[in-house]
Each structure stands twice: as structure tokens, then as C-alpha cells.
Amino acid sequence: MSDVRQTFSTASVASLDSPQAYIEETPIWRDGTDVDSSILTGMQWRIWWLACAGKFFEGMVVFMTGIALPLIGREFKLTAVEHGLVSSAILFGILIGATALGGLADRFGRRAMFIVEMALFIAFLLVLSIAPNLAITLIALFGVGLALGCDYPTAHMVISENIPARARGRMVLGAFSFQAVGALSGTGLAFLTLTWFPDPEAWRWMYLTAVPPALLILAGRFFVPESSNWLIVRGRVAEAETALLRLLNRRPRYPSEISLKAETAASPHAHKVKWSRFLTDRKLRKATIFASVPWFLQDLGTYGIGIFTPVILASSIGNKREHAQSLSDLVYNDLLAAKGAALIDVLLIVGIVFAVMFTDRIGRVRLQVIGFIGCAVGLAIAASGNHAGSGWDVPLIFAGFMLFNFMTNMGPNAQTYLIAGEVFPVAYRGTGAGLAASFAKIGAVLTAFLFPILLKDLGTDVLLAGLVVTSLLGAVVTWVYRIETRGAGLG
């Protein structure tokens, strides 16, 4: 950083009177050469890493629950309906938390909810680890989901409102990729826990492993500044200037001082969001449909296939012990499921890497459309496996599901999250992004409950055909209501 001049180019900035204008400034070298990509400050990197942690914990806990479920079922002697409640409790919590808590970021600030969500996450994990019965277990899982739901809009906003637009896409998706890293880590930790402690209560230790790192992340979140974009909308100009100085603290020092212009519409009561505007305001309505409907359709397929794929993978890895009676049989089957889930997670990581690489080059809309179409192709290949000759059935099903997992994480699974945090104005961003996430999780909850039942009653072919249709519909809705946010400022 010592090679960077203390004067910075402002060719792309009309006037330095808004937080986003300062954030967008590009350093230049001593010979006057522009830097191709933004040089992020230490505080910007700190915010990014702390936001990554939220997505990491989501992937870790949600995927860990799938492995913990057989052990929870054995301890509490769960019925089929109770199994469904446990498997969907976190998803239902995310559904509620994304809007109920995520929307509070528009009222109390991004930093405040960034802290609160992690405190809630830790508290409910601790309750979960000592839950004496099913009722407390469900409450704790729902509470964990509430905290993770709040993170959907909040983590996105603390990154996107503090990062230059030209780097925003890859930085937000880079953080989102930690969901897949967390999933892989969660399955790995669950596998090790079961190996070291082959006990019916091993599931409690699985959840406790997330508490120590979460405490460190909670401590770190107390030391980040509030979003200057949010402060300026609230009319708190002096606080916005102070926050921006902390965010852009560089060596050599630049800027040495910041002078912001209050927005004309700024108000300390800007948190009073009128929900009716999401329907009556044409731009907000279009943004809501664009952010919500494709995400809902994506979750139908992603969670549906997520439930079905481990069965195929488990059968290809080894022989499952049917009608497990002993604890050793139960642990063996759970370890087998953990291996299968780990294979899936590798494809999720590969897909998100491609999303990070191309979202700022190709654009959000095109990647989402390409991803949806790729998902449909993958599902069609998987469906064809049921009608292929002997020796081709498992490879086709395997290949189709792997293509689906790659395309969904490169396209709609990543892009819907990114888009939801970009298409709404600052004053409505937390509520709008939370609303989109909640609507999407309706699809996830419905799938968690209904997919196994429909799989039994309708069969694989009908279900896969239905998901092919929903994937293609996602591509159509994305294109019809498209709002490309690549490179656009969020101030």
C-alpha cells in the first residue's frame, strides 16, 4: 500500500458528497496508472470475513442436522411426522427470521442486527445441546433458524454497502460460498464426532462444536462500523462521516477528512417501512417479483434434490444396513450418509467458485438464466436414468444430479441471494431482501415436508418432470422481470 499516492482518482465519481462516492474511489500509482481493481482496506476485509462466518455456520448447522436426525429420532423415538418437524424446523425459522429480524436492520441498523443474530445463534445452540425433550429441541432448532434467517439480508448488506460496486458481486458470492464450505465442514465434523463418540447423544456434541468459533465471531462484530449508507438515509450525517473514516482507514491516510451531503429525503424515521409499497409502487413490485419468485422456484428444486440425492449416493458408495436395530447399525448408516453428503458438497463448492468468477463478467441475470436451464437439463438426464438399460441407470442419475448441483450453485442458488440484496433502495433493502428470502424458504419448507411423501405416491419420474418445469419457469421469470445490477451503485 506504500506505493499508492495520497491523492486518488475520482474520474468515475461525479462528486464526493455521498458514502458510495468515497467507497468507489480508485487508487492510482505514483506514475498515474489506475489500479484495475479496488484496493480494499483492512476494515473492509474484516467486515467481509465476519460476514462469511454467518454463511459458514448456516451450511454447517443445516447439513449437520440431516446427519443428526437419525440420532435425534432414536433418542426421542420420533414418528414420521415428528421427523418432518425436526428436519424442517431450521428452515421454518429461516423463513420467519429473514423478514421478522432481517427487516429490523432497516430500523436499528445493519451493525446492530449483525451482532444480535450471532448472539441468538449461540444462545439457541446451547439450548439445543442440552434439550431434554422434543419440544425444546424443536424450539431451539427454530431459534437457530431465526438467527440464520436474519443473516440472509444482513450479511449481504454489510458487505454490499461497504464494498465498491465493481467488486461487490464476487465479494458477496465469495461470502456466500462459505455456505458450501460450512456444509462440507459440518458433515466432516459430524463424521468425526460419530467416529470418536459412537453414542446416541453424539448429535449434541455436533452442535456444540459451532459455539467456540461463533463466540469469536460475535466478539469481532462489535468492532465494525455502521453502514454509512444507512446512516445517511436516516439523516445522521456526522455519524456517517465517522463510520466512513473508519471503513476507509488506509496507510497512507486517505481520505483525511470526509464531508457528506445529507439526502433530501433523509429522516430519522426512515425505518417506518410501508409494506403496501411493495405492491403499489411499480419499481418495488417488479424488484420484489424478480427477487422472490425465482428464489422460491430454485429452493423447490435444490431442497427436493438435496433430500433425494443422498439415497442414490449412499447406494453407490456402499451397502446400507436395512432395518437398523443396533446402535452400531445406526451409526454405520449415518456415517454412510455423511460420506454421500460430502460428495455433494464438493460439487456445491465447484459451482460457487464459477459463480464468483463470472458474476461480475457475465452478469447476474444471464448466469441465473443459464443456471436454471442447466438445472433442467441435469434433472432430465437424471430422469432418463430410470429408463436406461442395466449399467446406465445409476451413472445417469448420478451425472444428472451432479450437473444439477453444479448449475444451481453457479446460477440461481448464488444469484438469487446476490440479487435480493441489490435490487431494493437503501431504506427498504433489509425488508425487501428479507421478504424475498422468506418467500423462497416457503418453497424449502414445503419441499422438506412433502417431497418424501410425493416421491412415494407419485414416483421419481413425475417429481423430476415437475422440477424440470419449475426450473424452466425460473429462467422465464428471471428474464421477463430482469433487473441487472452488475456494477450499479447501491447508495
TrEMBL record:
<feature type="transmembrane region" description="Helical">
    <location>
        <begin position="136"/>
        <end position="159"/>
    </location>
</feature>
<feature type="transmembrane region" description="Helical">
    <location>
        <begin position="112"/>
        <end position="130"/>
    </location>
</feature>
<keyword id="KW-0812">Transmembrane</keyword>
<dbReference type="InterPro" id="IPR005828">
    <property type="entry name" value="MFS_sugar_transport-like"/>
</dbReference>
<feature type="transmembrane region" description="Helical">
    <location>
        <begin position="287"/>
        <end position="315"/>
    </location>
</feature>
<feature type="transmembrane region" description="Helical">
    <location>
        <begin position="461"/>
        <end position="481"/>
    </location>
</feature>
<feature type="transmembrane region" description="Helical">
    <location>
        <begin position="335"/>
        <end position="358"/>
    </location>
</feature>
<dbReference type="Pfam" id="PF00083">
    <property type="entry name" value="Sugar_tr"/>
</dbReference>
<feature type="transmembrane region" description="Helical">
    <location>
        <begin position="365"/>
        <end position="384"/>
    </location>
</feature>
<feature type="domain" description="Major facilitator superfamily (MFS) profile">
    <location>
        <begin position="47"/>
        <end position="486"/>
    </location>
</feature>
<keyword id="KW-0813">Transport</keyword>
<feature type="transmembrane region" description="Helical">
    <location>
        <begin position="84"/>
        <end position="105"/>
    </location>
</feature>
<dbReference type="InterPro" id="IPR036259">
    <property type="entry name" value="MFS_trans_sf"/>
</dbReference>
<feature type="transmembrane region" description="Helical">
    <location>
        <begin position="171"/>
        <end position="197"/>
    </location>
</feature>
<feature type="transmembrane region" description="Helical">
    <location>
        <begin position="47"/>
        <end position="72"/>
    </location>
</feature>
<feature type="transmembrane region" description="Helical">
    <location>
        <begin position="432"/>
        <end position="455"/>
    </location>
</feature>
<dbReference type="InterPro" id="IPR020846">
    <property type="entry name" value="MFS_dom"/>
</dbReference>
<comment type="similarity">
    <text>Belongs to the major facilitator superfamily. Sugar transporter (TC 2.A.1.1) family.</text>
</comment>
<feature type="transmembrane region" description="Helical">
    <location>
        <begin position="203"/>
        <end position="224"/>
    </location>
</feature>
<keyword id="KW-1133">Transmembrane helix</keyword>
<keyword id="KW-0472">Membrane</keyword>
<protein>
    <submittedName>
        <fullName>MFS transporter</fullName>
    </submittedName>
</protein>
<feature type="transmembrane region" description="Helical">
    <location>
        <begin position="396"/>
        <end position="420"/>
    </location>
</feature>
